[in-house]
Amino acid sequence: MNVFLKNYQFCTDDGFIPIYGAAVHYWRLEREKWSEILDKVKGMGFTAIETYIPWEIHELEDGRFDFGSLDPKKDIDTFLKLCEEKGFKVIVRPGPQINSELPYFGYPKRVLDNPKYHMKTSYSTKAILNQASRPVPALNYANEDLYKEFAKWYDAICSILKKHLTPKGCIIAVQVDNEMNFFFHVTPYLVDYSEFAIELYREFLREKYGNDINKLNKYYGTNYKGFDEVKPPTKFNAKTVRELRYYLDWIEFREHYLIKTMTKLAKMLKERLGNNVLLFHNYPHPLSPGIAKGVTTTPYNLIALEKELNFVGFDIYSRKELYDHVKLVTSYVVGSSRVPFIPEFIAGVWPWYLRPTAPQDEEFVSKAAVMHGIKGFSRYMIVERDRWMGSPIARDGYIREDRYQVHKKFIETLRKYEFVKFEKKREVLILMDREYDRLEAATALISFPGDFLEPLLGFSEYPNALYVSDDTFGFEETVQMVKSLWFEKYYKVLTDLEYTFDISDSELDIARMKQYKAVCIPSFEFMTQKLQDKIYEVAKDGGIVVLGPKIPKLNEYFEEYKVIEDAISSSQKVDIIHDGRTIAIEYKLSKGAIALVRNLNDMPYVLESLFRLYNIHKIEKAPVAIDAVLHINREKPDEALLFVANPTSQYVKATITLPYDVKEVVEVWSEKKLSEVRYELVDELPPYNIKTYLLLKR
Amino acid sequence: MLDLHVQMVDININHWGYLQSKLVRSGREKERIIIIHEKGKILKFIHSHGKSIRRIIDKITDPFKDAENVYEANKDLIEYVIIVDRDAVNEYFAEVQESWNPNESIVEYTIRMRRLLNKYYEKGVIVTYPSKPTDYLGWVPTIKINYDAIVEFVNTYILPNSLVALFIFANQKLKASLILGFNKNLRIDLITSTDILRPLKIEEHDWKQGYKDLITIIESKIGKKCSIGIFIEEEILDNIIQKGGIEFQRVIDALKQDKLLLYPITDKLRTILSNFT
């Protein structure tokens, strides 16, 4: 059975297939327990098994491996056969980096501890990630010699994996490396300053500036004679707009570094496994659990990486109090990825996760992810193991009943009601210019290494208002700080006004932008040239684009670029009035329109007024604290799933206006039929609870 | 003190969460004022949770005095003030990372990192107020016990290749457990809980009726003798831990009243305690 991606789903020739994966680490379980444990996983309804394959564990010495001949627990070939026999699809993650709470992060010690492979910090030291049980040095993926080591591992493991690939075997997807983000050294001026990385940086600049140093000099205000003279920034020092490009390029290069290195590994896997294998990557939980705010793009560039791999996802490990974080991350993946899949989705946690989760957290977060459009996931870890706790199945096969039942019920319901056939109804997209995020990162005043306990100085690894520069660089606003306020305001206002939305960034292609009736974009005096072009195209072809607080007049090189300004200057203007005051202007283009909101506080009135005018889909609900999303069955449009979330700590009585007269309503998690419901649904929701109603149109 | 290949298995997540709540608090969750400066010029002056603050200084001249003044002017809004010299942050982390030793565990690395932080405090370049950085930053232990004292205790009172087990009870029922295995070098090579005893439903028994049996079962399951078993009621534990320290006299009182049971106990520890009980 061939598995491929189509219409944002995993498919076979027979249609959509649910990929509900469960992480089981064969080498950490007694061999004689494998079959019993897999049966218990099957009993929960999972359709796929996911496993890391650790180089660290299989390598005996350089070039010599044990795949079960010495230690039967390491017999990956037999494990895969067993999965096949039991009817599972399999997702494998052979690294080379896997973390997996292993002391050497998945690499053999001889590789990890070899100084010639280490990244260098801006102050010429090793870059050490503080993690248990042993802090690890970051490896320098720009070093070609490291790939010679990787090749030895890939040669060994791929010869086994190849036998199990679909359509003959069970393996449907292979992950390229793991959570690659400079070994969690995310702050921009910490790594990588090794000679190899600097050479890669200069290659990036050559490519970006068409090998024309004069072009670079023009934007940097410098007099370099060649690219070899350019040194990467080690500390943010810009005072004026003219100086910013140098730093922004470094931030962009860090994205490029991650894409380039993952692409290189993907190519190595394809050489060994063939071109038909689905390759993917997972970015880590974007912000540390508990400190979630805003959407994070750089150094991750999901859409750009998907040009090289088949799909990319974000891992999620959230508590129930972080509903907005789950909504934000899943809405971003749904709005940006080729297939909305969570490669690691919470089922238990690592021991140094502060305030570990209860089954209720996992139940709530799972439903929230599906509510906002996630179609597949892999539960990490469904079977407990060394340095992991709270999984539904313990390492000896013992069932932790409370957690087991939560996950079982969840999967059973997804399968029974065929959630994969439903599509989230949304007509609005919030889109962020990546260049604003890059500016936020570029203006970080300090850098510090990754730390799995907690970054010592109390800052998030992802630069934010707490430690980015307050300078305006001559702009009217502190763009690197205000951009988050605008994004968050769009997010909150759309939620409060009952509009369902996705989230993406400026890398999104125009065809996909055009799938939405309305696109909301924070905009300042400068904006990426390509994004300005896309906005103009979208609005010209019938879309509604909401901008604010500025119409951009500069591009990312801070040169004049006014495609939007020019388009609206000759357009028909309509004032949007609230309380007798003009709060925004709508500029009518040939088919669509661009609206400009100048004041953050006016946004609710502007969006309500505009979206009502253009008949944008919304779900009327009360009270405002609840959230609601409608999914329509693609095959049977008269069937819908209505998700209603109570993300608060209080009981609420929810009232929802239904999209049509219904003849039958069933709450799918409880399978309770609601009687006498026609146009309005009223129900009580306990704290941190999501109910999902199957609506059948009368 | 932690073996690089320590096994952390069968940890009861509820027990673990309870112990975390008793033993550790997170520095970054606390409301604070952050000041980042460069040679005295303030580049950042902000409240961690976005609140309006009284900005009573416009440059850093004496970081200790400045931190105190900012704290006093805003103490209704914050738990502490942190003032960092931008370049010192780089120097600090350079020194930390360069000190990495491949044969060290996270414990030794983190302890060194934290001790070094206090040196940068003394130099006036990473300053917190009202107290020193290690009282606020990162994971802060709620019980202030010197790490060297813990190592000394282990080396003195715990036998090689043995276990130490802690059981906390509330209303006679088990609330939390922590079982540590020590290897021949007295490094922790096992961290587990009573979950390792499945299917024995330990929570359902009155511990005072069967604590000796419990130790026997654990020893049998893990294959190591227990050096020290600590059995204590939650309220007694809370009574013993006061103001970030352990009240030794209250320990002695609890032992005398059988509200804290030590079973088994090494000879050396019994001897030293007998001087007080």
Give an account of the 3D structure:
The complex is a heterodimer of chains A (698) and B (277). Chain A is α/β, with parallel strands linked by helices and 698 residues long. Chain A folds into three domains: 4-98 and 150-185 and 259-419, Glycosidases (TIM Barrel, Alpha-Beta Barrel); 428-613, Rossmann fold (3-Layer(aba) Sandwich); 621-697, Sandwich (Immunoglobulin-like), CATH 2.60.40.1180. Chain A contains 18 helices and 31 strands. In chain A, the strands form seven sheets. Chain A has an eight-stranded parallel β-sheet. Chain A has a seven-stranded mixed β-sheet with strand order 18-17-19-20-23-22-21, with helices on both faces. In chain A, a hairpin with a 2-residue loop joins strand 2 (9-12) and strand 3. In chain A, helix 5 runs parallel beside helix 8, helix 6 (195-208) crosses helix 8 and helix 8 crosses helix 13. Chain A is globular and about 80 Å long. Chain B folds into two domains: 2-23 and 145-274, no CATH class; 31-135, no CATH class. Helix content of chain B is 38%, strand content 28%. In chain B, the strands form four sheets. Chain B has a six-stranded mixed β-sheet with strand order 1-10-9-8-11-14, with helices on both faces. In chain B, strands 4-3-5-6 form a four-stranded mixed β-sheet. Chain B has a two-stranded antiparallel sheet with strand order 2-7. In chain B, strand 3 and strand 4 form a beta hairpin. The longest helix of chain B is centred in the middle third of the chain and has 17 residues, at 106-122. The radius of gyration of chain B is 22 Å and the shape is elongated. At the A-B interface, loops of A face strand 1, helix 1, strand 3, strand 4 and helix 3 of B.
